[in-house]
Every structure is written in C-alpha cells, then in structure tokens.
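User: Please run a holo structure prediction.
Assistant: Happy to. Please share the sequence and the ligand.
User: Here you go; the ligand is nicotinamide-adenine-dinucleotide.
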Amino acid sequence: MDQVVQQYLDKYGISAATRAFLAKPQKMFIGGQWLDASDGARFKVTEPSTEGQITTVPSATVADLDRAVAAARAQFDGGEWRQLKPLARERLLQRLANLMEEHATELAELEAIDMGKSVGFARDIDVQGSVDTIRYFAGWASKLHGRTVEPSSLPGNYLAYTRKEPLGVVAAIVPWNFPLQTMVWKLAAALAVGCTMVIKPAELTSLSTLRFAELVQEAGIPDGVVNIVTGRGSVIGAAMTSHPGIDKLTFTGSTPVGRKVGAAAVDQLKHVTLELGGKSPVIVLADADLKAAANAVVNGVFFNSGQVCDAGTRVYVARSVYQPFLDELVALTRELKIAPGLAPDCYISPLVSAQQKDSVLSYIASGIEEGAQLACGGKALPGPGFFVEPTIFAHCRQDMRIVREEIFGPVLVTLPFDDVDEAVALANDTEYGLAAAIYSNDLSLVHSLIPRIEAGMVYVNAHGTIDPALPFGGFKGSGFGKDLGAEQLDHLMTTKAVWITLP
Ligand code: NAD
C-alpha cells in the first residue's frame, strides 16, 4: 500500500478488520479455494481521493474462468447444492445476510476506499440494500412453483402441469459504481432459485466482492456455488459471453459493452439480462413544490457523485418557474460538501478513476463550447484525487452532447418547456429509457403522463427510490430484463410443460 493511502486511512481511522483484510494478498475465489491467476498476473487497485495504490488483485486468465465455470457446473449438475431443499437455501441466504450485517462497517469501508464513495452512503445504502435484497429473495426460495393446467382443446385425458426449473450457471458481469450492491442484486435471486454463479467484478472495484466471498464461505454455502473471478472485461468478460458452460449472462454496465454482450448471447443462444446506461429525464411542472422538488432533483443527480445509472440528469422545467427553480438548484448544489469518501461529512466523493474524471471534464468543456450557460461548478479540484465540482448547466438545447449522452458524473443539464406535450416529447427524445421523474401535485395529470413516458421506472415527487420488491431495469437502449422484484425470478428459471396421459 502506498504511504498516501496509509496516511489517509490513519487520518479517518478504519476498523482493524478492514486493515487486516487490506494487509492480505488478494486472491480469487474459485471452487471454494483462494487462488492467484494461473499466470500470476495482477492489476493495481487505486484509491480515488489520494490516487495512491491500495493493493493488487489477480488478473484472471481464461483458464481460471474455465475452472470457475467447471466448479459452478459441478454444483449445478447434481452437486450438493442441487440436492438442497428450498428452505435450506433460504437458511443459507439468511445466514449470509446476518454475516453481512455483522460486517457492515468493513464492507462499507472497503467500498469507500476502493470506489471512492461516501462511507456513510455505502453503509446505509450499498450494504444495507444488499442485506435487504438477500433477505427478500431468501423468502422466495420456498415459494417458486408451476401450475396444473387443463388442456384447452386437445381430445383425451391428461394431467398437465408446468415446472419452474433454475436456468443453470449464471455469469454476472458487474460495473464499478455500486460494486457490492449490483453484484448482490444478481446473486440473491440466482441463489434463491437454485442457480450457481460465476461473478466478475469491474477491474476498478473488486475488494468488497472478495470480502463478500469470505462471508459466502463462512455462511456455509457449498464450495463452487459462488465463484469470483477478478479480471479484465475485454478478456474475462468477453470469454464469459461465449463460454459453453454458462447458461445465462446478467450484465450491468455501459450500453456499448451491453450491445456486445447481447450480441454474443444471441449468437450462443444464452439467456441474457442487460442493465445498461441512462440519461433519465425529470419533468418539473409549474404547480410543483419547488423547494421539495429541487432538493429531490439535487439528490437524484449528485448522489454517488452522479455515477448512478438512473440519475436524473436532464431536467425540463415549466418556463414560468424555470428561473426560481434553477436558483434553488444552484443554491442547494453549492452547499454540497466535497470530501474524500471516508470523511464523515462527504457528499460529493471523488470520481472512480482518472479516466472517468477526464471524461466528465471533457463533457463539461463540450457543453461550454456548444453554448450552454454554466450555472455552477464546472471544474476539477486541484489534485490529488479525482474530484469534480457538482455542475449545473442552464438554458441547454436538446441537440447538445451534454443533453444527449450519458456523462456518468456530477453534471446536470436544465431546459425550459412550454407545455406538457413538449415536456413528454423532450423526455422521450433519447436512446435510453431507464428512469424518469415527474414533480407535480396534480395527480390526475401525473397519472395521465406516466403511460406516455418511455422508461422502466417512473418516480413521482422523488428520484431513485429502490426496494428489493420492485423491479429495476430499463427500456430502449437501457437494456431489457429486470433485476429485483418477483420479475427477476422469471429471468432465472425456465418453464417445463409436463404431459401425463391418463387412461
Ligand atoms: P462498462 O460497460 O465499461 O463495464 C461493465 C462491466 O463489463 C465491467 O465488469 C467490465 O469489466 C465488463 N466488460 C468490459 N468490456 C467487456 C466485454 N467486451 N465483454 C464483457 N464484459 C466486458 O461499464 P462501467 O464503466 O463499469 O459502468 C458504468 C456504466 O454502467 C454506465 O453506463 C452506467 O449507466 C451503467 N450502469 C447501469 C446500471 C443499470 O442497472 N441499468 C447500473 C449501474 C451502472
């Protein structure tokens, strides 16, 4: 570990357990064993507020992936896992959730150190949300069943029924913005239905997933049911998409990579869920409670420093209230505390990497070049650290790059509109369709707008509310399939029709 990272950890104080974890050489978790990459290759892990090196993790080879898939296959094709009754799976998942709760501080600290995010948000949202998700899906394990069906026209006597069966080995490819939580969203439902897993964290953020794997082992989940392969997307992610031992791909990440994963899945005839990018619109109607709406909009775009797929990044405001609303947004944004993730009062944390910081800054420069007015922010903080000020652009045009493309950083664009039909048209004028928000107290109008909005989630007078019982996933270029909710279970099971001929 670099000295700057050591000093950072000392300054804010982290638990002895996190220190002990970081002091260990990190290994992958395959078939219940802790392994280096078969060729010994490793990559560096950087702490985003100091730019120092935290540790290194194995950079898996395709041979390592083969081993992980073989372990997952063995458990699925008649291993101990496949013999477990649903309530036994439920019990194991509940034990895992208990262990996560016990080790919540460590998991949150690792997420803050590795990804850069606020440790408070990591504890209350990433870790607690993961625990809740595991508990929710644990309960489903014993409630999955088919139907008995009366054939509708075929002559003869039959007992006909359907069986719900787990799909098999599920490969999860995970992004860096919510490393633990996104992984758990995929794992909890897959294990509840009886699948086994091979998981690839993003190369920038493997640490919380590796600590989680220790808890999987401690919970008593049989070896080989969960395998963690740390590696490069272009090597391991790509190899997963064409691996013959994998039955289902569940991918969360950018739309360009999602297209490749989807194309490979179709080619290989694998099941696939794609949770992709977004450029979610927000419509603020003239009657909205402007103070409350501004507060929700600011949180809805700047939480996690804007590195949130369903962030409300395009705000369309009724022209009559555009200026007072903009003033409110700017005032609230100026109060947001920019600090390293471990600082207790951190709201705006550093971006995850130098590359992400450069990309966000180049979007800000393009907005200025294309004539948008900078209402606040716009700059990086002097280093070290990948900090970018929360930024608001005023009086944007729909054709600007900052309005059309996903920035994935703390940048909000605002545009006025004249009537509701125009607001809906502007909101839908995007390749994406992940989420949208409407602020108004005119509930009849709001209800009439909801069916017209092309998005997988619509929030009213709020942004980004998430619960394991509600499905999460997009329309259009934001992908298809759902994580969370009962809907996710359908994407992890197949239905077999059974015909028994009766005399
Ligand atoms: P990314 O697409 O670059 O990477 C995502 C994952 O894919 C990583 O694990 C990466 O290693 C892997 N990968 C890279 N190339 C691959 C390839 N050729 N084949 C297979 N896998 C490959 O995305 P990111 O930068 O890690 O995350 C940010 C993106 O994720 C944003 O676009 C964001 O909107 C999206 N996201 C979407 C959701 C959602 O639920 N819709 C949630 C979080 C993030």
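The domain at 280-471 is CATH 3.40.309.10 (Aldehyde Dehydrogenase; Chain A, domain 2).
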